[in-house]
Amino acid sequence: CIPNIKNAWMMPSIDLDAVLVGIRVATYGEELTLTTKIPGAGIEKDYTVDLRQLLNKLLSNKFDSESMINGLGVTIRPLTYKEFTESSLKTFEEQRIFNLVNDDTVPDSEKMSKFNESFSKLTALTIDMLCKSVVSIRVEDKNVTNRGHIDEFIKNSDKTFYTGVKEHLETQRSQFELEPMT
After folding, report:
1. Which residues fall within 8 angstroms of residue 95, CB to CB, at 6 or more apart?
2. Is residue 102 scored above 80 in pLDDT?
3. What's the Cα-to-Cα distance from 9 to each of 19, 29, 173, rounded to whole Å?
4. What are 17-53's pLDDT values in tens digits?
């Protein structure tokens, strides 16, 4: 649908909604009719959404890749669509294990073991995603871009640095999310 996107897996994940809305506009027009049931009444109601407004909101945002955290300059990037999808699948698989906690047929010791294992994997996955998003760290006049050094630094950093990077990433990502419609 978009010839300039040679490998959709490598596009920034934050661009996905804009691409899909753009394809929908190009294919079916600028309006989308949604049918919903009114809670408690059982009445169906049609609503028309102007997709141009959604697209304008998504396209007007700018990703701010630079941040100062604990006196260090941090350059970030959004996850690629492939990285985002892989982490979502892994997270889903690990969250299924959390369902064991409510299963009365599984012994408590096994529940606790599986829960701890799953929690450790989810924590490692979260740190890995954050590491992938950091492109460089500037210390005084030196710019560190070595992937191994960045990963090691983040995994051994204090909570304030980790939280600062995470919050900056979440703020940037949230700008590109479609808001729920009322």
Report:
1. 118, 122
2. no
3. 13, 26, 18
4. 999 999 999 999 999 999 988 888 889 999 999 999 9
Ranges of beta strands (E only) in 38-130 are 44-50, 66-69, 72-76
CA distances from 49 to 34, 38, 176, 179 (A): 8, 17, 18, 13
Using DSSP, state whether 175 is helix, strand or coil: coil
3-class DSSP assignment, residue 46: strand
State the DSSP code for 6. Answer: S
The DSSP letter of residue 65 is -
| Model confidence pLDDT, tens digit, residues 108-129 | 787 778 778 877 888 888 899 9
Asked if 165 contacts 74 with a C-beta cutoff of 8 angstroms, the reply is yes
Tell me if the pTM is above 0.85: no
> C-alpha angle with apex 85: 132 to 19, nearest 5 degrees?
100
